[in-house]
Design goal:
Blueprint (H helix, E strand, L loop, with lengths): L2 H11 L3 H4 L5 H8 L1 H4 L7 H14 L5 E2 L2 E9 L3 E6 L4 E5 L4 H17 L11 E8 L2 E7 L5 E2 H7 L6 H20 L2 E2 L8 E4 L4 E4 L6 E2 L25 H13 L11 H10 L6 H16 L12
Antiparallel strand pairs: 1-2, 2-3, 3-4, 4-6, 5-6, 7-9, 8-11, 9-10
Length: 309
């Protein structure tokens, strides 16, 4: 077994060690990953060995079930829900505490997503509703994405210096496209934060989440993410609007730009800064930005984005 194979095994089973240890014992794993075995090859496997031990410890615990769903790994803690991956590849939002207002918001999220899951190609920009049911603390929502996505917040943890200009470019186009569809339905997301903009490096797709915050144009914003209060402009107090989504999207996208050694071109950065002025028509912005990318980079081509840690 080569060192890369050990790393691949850890990566594959990090979220599901139960399957890994169905056919292997900890003794076998310790033998083929022990640092003493690899030191003669000049390789230090101490961290790999320790992670296998950690996977074994995790595999000895009984997986938690919520309803019929087995929880695999914790994604994040939201304002209202704990969010997990499930064994069958879904995402489950479990109530943290019993709260009628939280249930009202999760029902709203379900309603919005059902409206957006209209069978069009735009449906790919949103999680698909799989199920919802009542549990001890309230309503649990189960959704699924068609691709493996990374949020901008996750990308910045993996690439703290941001991304190159080409990647910032296609991500911006995808965000403008999804917002164009959302706004055509009369909705604003009202929380276009780094946690809610999701990117698929495999096919350069995107998705927008955080729909407990969504509101119809002009309606009062009822839920603001606690950790992102500073992203909201003063005019947010006037209610939901396309302008609010565009300004917040610009702030989130600027976090990805201009930090790499091969900097994002100034024209792209200036465009994103200009978005913070809050143009009310996202389709005009998308058309303008597409022309800008054509001027800067020429003909479109797929540039691979590797976000595996």
């Amino acid at each position: 077994m080569e060192i890369q194979e050990l790393k691949t095994l850890i990566k594959k089973y990090r979220d599901n060690p139960w399957d890994f240890f169905k056919s292997r014992t900890i003794k076998e794993v310790s033998i083929f990953s022990h640092p003493d075995k690899w030191i003669v090859k000049g390789v230090d496997t101490s961290s790999i060995f320790a992670e296998f031990q950690s996977l074994y410890e995790k595999s000895t615990t009984i997986p938690i079930k919520v309803g019929k769903y087995t929880l695999l790994s914790h994604i994040c803690t939201g304002d209202l829900r704990e969010i997990y991956n499930t064994e069958d590849g879904a995402i489950i939002k479990v109530p943290r505490v019993k709260n009628k207002s939280a249930d009202t918001l999760i029902k709203k999220e379900e309603k919005i997503l059902k409206e957006f899951n209209d069978g069009s190609t735009y449906s790919l920009y949103f999680p698909t509703i799989i199920n919802s049911f009542s549990s001890d603390n309230g309503i649990t929502l189960v959704t699924k994405n068609t691709e493996k996505f990374f949020s901008i917040a996750q990308i910045l943890k993996i690439r703290p210096n941001g991304l190159g200009g080409r990647h910032v470019g296609w991500i911006t186009r995808r965000v403008l496209t999804v917002l164009g569809f959302v706004h055509s339905k009369g909705w604003a997301n009202c929380a276009v934060t780094p946690e809610h903009i999701l990117i698929s490096p495999t096919n350069h797709g995107a998705a927008l989440t955080g729909w407990i915050h969504g509101e119809k144009f002009g309606d009062k914003i009822k839920a603001i993410p606690v950790i992102r209060k500073d992203m909201y402009p003063e005019f947010a107090k006037n209610g939901a609007s396309p302008k609010l989504d565009i300004v917040m999207a610009a702030k989130s996208l600027l976090l990805l730009a201009s930090k790499e050694s091969t900097e994002t071109p100034k024209r792209i950065i200036n465009f994103l800064k200009g978005m913070q002025m809050g143009s009310p028509d996202v389709w005009d912005l998308e058309e303008e930005f597409s022309e800008l990318l054509k001027d800067v980079y020429g003909k479109r081509r797929f540039v691979e984005l590797n976000l595996e840690e």
